[in-house]
Specification:
binds NADPH dihydro-nicotinamide-adenine-dinucleotide phosphate, 9 helices, NAD(P)-bd_dom_sf, two-stranded parallel sheet, binds ligand L7H2UBRR, alpha/beta
C-alpha cells in the first residue's frame, strides 16, 4: 500500500511532530493548517525526504475542506491515514465568565472541523481499505471534568464518541478509527488557550515533566502502523507526573 498521511493542524505541536515522524518512515504527506508560512517551512524541511503537498486550510470551512480533498494531486489522492489533529481550547475561565464566541470557535473547530475533514476523506479511506486509519486527537478532557474545561472538554467527548460510532459504521471496510487522548503536553496549546499569555504557559509546564509533541506523534505513528487487523479504540496518554484530583466539595 502507498502510504499517504493527511494531517490537519500540521503547523505546530502534535501535527508538526507527526509530519516529521511519518516523513522519517517514508510516508507521503498532505499537510494542512491556516498559517501558510509555517506550511512552507515544513515543506522545505521535509520535501527532500518524502513527497509533500501543503494546503492552507481552515477546517471550519466545509467547502474549503471539500475543495482541498478534491484537488489533491494524483500522487496524494489515495490517502491511507487521516490525522484529525487541528483543534484548540480557549477561555480557561469559569463558564459563566467567558464569551459565547469562544465556545462557538471551539465547537466549530474541534467538532465541525473534525467532522468536515472526516466526511470529505471517508470515501477515499474506504476505497483504500484494510490498513487505513482515522486517528482523531481527543483529550483526557473528553472524559475528565475540571474547572474551565466547559465546552473544550465537551468537544473532546464528542471526539471520543464519534470515533467509537464511526467504528460501528466502518465495520467490514478495514478502516480503523482511534481516539488518541493526551493529557498535559507542552505545545502552543496553552498560549492559544490563554490568548498568548507566556507566563501562564511557563507556569503550567515548569517544575514537572509534560509530554512533548514528539511523544504524542510517536503514539499516533504506532497506531497508524499496527498490523491491519488491530484497532486501538482509544489511547489515553498522560505524563507520569500527572494524575486525577479528588472531587471538589462546596462547604458552608
Ligand atoms: N497540548 C495539549 O496539552 C493537548 C492538546 N490536545 C489536542 O491536540 C491537538 C493539537 O494541539 P497542540 O499541538 O497541543 O496545539 P498547537 O496549538 O501547538 O497546535 C494546534 C494546531 O491546530 C491548528 N488549528 C487550530 N485551529 C485550526 C483551524 N480552524 N483550521 C485548521 N487548523 C487549525 C493550528 O494551525 P493554524 O493555527 O496554523 O491553523 C495548529 O497547527 C488539538 O486538537 C488539541 O485540542 C489534546 C490533549 C492535550
Ligand atoms: O487537552 C488538553 C489537555 S488538558 O489541558 O485538558 O489537561
Amino acid at each position: 500500500m502507498n502510504r499517504i498521511a493527511f494531517i490537519t493542524g500540521a503547523t505546530s505541536g502534535f501535527g508538526r511532530a507527526c509530519a516529521h515522524r511519518f516523513a522519517e518512515a517514508g510516508w507521503s504527506l498532505v499537510l494542512s493548517g491556516r498559517r501558510e508560512e509555517r506550511l512552507a517551512e515544513l515543506r522545505e524541511a521535509l520535501e527532500d525526504k518524502v513527497p509533500v503537498h501543503t494546503a492552507v486550510l481552515d477546517v471550519r470551512d466545509d467547502a474549503a475542506v471539500k475543495a482541498v480533498v478534491e484537488a489533491l494531486p494524483d500522487a496524494f489522492a489515495g490517502v491511507t491515514c487521516l490525522v484529525n489533529n487541528a483543534g484548540l481550547a480557549l477561555a480557561p475561565q469559569p463558564a459563566q465568565q467567558v464569551d459565547l464566541a469562544d465556545w462557538h470557535t471551539m465547537i466549530d473547530t474541534n467538532v465541525r472541523g473534525l467532522a468536515n475533514v472526516t466526511h470529505a476523506l471517508l470515501p477515499t479511506l474506504i476505497e483504500q481499505g484494510a490498513g487505513t486509519s482515522i486517528i482523531n486527537v481527543g483529550s483526557v478532557a473528553g472524559d475528565t471534568p475540571y474547572p474551565g474545561s466547559h465546552v473544550y472538554g465537551a468537544t473532546k467527548a464528542f471526539v471520543k464518541q464519534f470515533s467509537y460510532n464511526l467504528r460501528c459504521d466502518l465495520l467490514g471496510t478495514g478502516v480503523r478509527v482511534t481516539d488518541v487522548a493526551p493529557g498535559l503536553a507542552e505545545t502552543e496549546f496553552t498560549l492559544v488557550r490563554t490568548g498568548g499569555n507566556q507566563d501562564a504557559h511557563d507556569a503550567l509546564y515548569q517544575g514537572t515533566t509534560p509530554l512533548s509533541a514528539e511523544d504524542i506523534a510517536e503514539q499516533i505513528f504506532y497506531v497508524a502502523t499496527l498490523p491491519v487487523h488491530i484497532n486501538i479504540n482509544r489511547m489515553d496518554v498522560m505524563p507520569v507526573r500527572q494524575a486525577w484530583a479528588p472531587f471538589a466539595i462546596d462547604r458552608d
